[in-house]
């Protein structure tokens, strides 16, 4: 069974096209309920994300709804942008209110994700997991 580690509506706050690589932009976003903050590198020529726009973002351990492999209906069929990567680091951080947050770092072949959220909502993440990130504009 596909297990969703993250399934939220995010709103893009900032779009920075001055990241180190050509054709790569870094977005800063919050989840709709402000429970998560993230920074994500995206290939801007393939998938444009602009400030103020909302997206559904899912992080899953597989693309198959039943968790198996083979030719079946894929979660990717319902999304516009998909990346596969490795969770390489987890850390703790404090926010402006001095609350403890868990920070997850995932590399998608050089494109990076930093996801910060409440420890109770981040318990499924483990270092060295292979994960899929899926995005669809709302």
The global form is globular
- Using the CA coordinates, give the radius of gyration: 15 Å
Helical fraction equals under 10%
User: Would you report the number of β strands?
Assistant: 8
Main beta sheet: strand number and arrangement?
8 strands, antiparallel, barrel
SSE string: EEEEEEEE
* Gap between N and C termini: 25 Å
Give the DSSP E fraction (strand runs of 2 or more residues): over 45%
What structural class do the secondary elements suggest? mainly beta
Q: Strand order of the main beta sheet, please? A: 1-2-3-7-6-5-8-4
Any low-confidence stretches, pLDDT <50, length ≥5? Answer: none
Rounded average pLDDT: 90
Give an account of the 3D structure.
It is a single chain. This protein is mainly β and 138 residues long. The chain is 0% helix and 54% strand. The protein has no helices and 8 strands. An 8-stranded antiparallel beta barrel has the order 1-2-3-7-6-5-8-4. A hairpin with a 5-residue loop joins strand 5 and strand 6.
List the helices and strands and how they pair.
Blueprint: E1 4-16, E2 24-31, E3 36-43, E4 54-60, E5 81-94, E6 100-108, E7 111-117, E8 130-137
Antiparallel strand pairs: 1-2, 1-4, 2-3, 3-7, 4-8, 5-6, 5-8, 6-7
């Amino acid at each position: 069974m596909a297990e969703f580690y993250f399934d939220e509506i995010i709103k893009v706050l900032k779009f920075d096209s001055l990241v180190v690589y050509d054709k790569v932009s870094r977005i800063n976003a919050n989840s709709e309920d402000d429970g998560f903050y993230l920074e994500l590198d995206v290939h801007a020529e393939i998938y444009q994300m602009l400030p103020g726009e909302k997206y559904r973002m899912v992080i899953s351990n597989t693309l198959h709804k039943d968790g198996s492999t083979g030719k079946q209906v894929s979660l990717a069929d319902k999304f516009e942008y998909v990346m596969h990567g490795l969770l390489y680091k987890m850390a703790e951080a404090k926010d402006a209110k001095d609350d403890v947050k868990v920070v997850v770092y995932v590399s998608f072949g050089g494109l990076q994700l930093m996801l910060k959220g409440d420890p109770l909502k981040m318990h499924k993440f483990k270092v060295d997991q292979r994960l899929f990130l899926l995005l669809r504009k709302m």
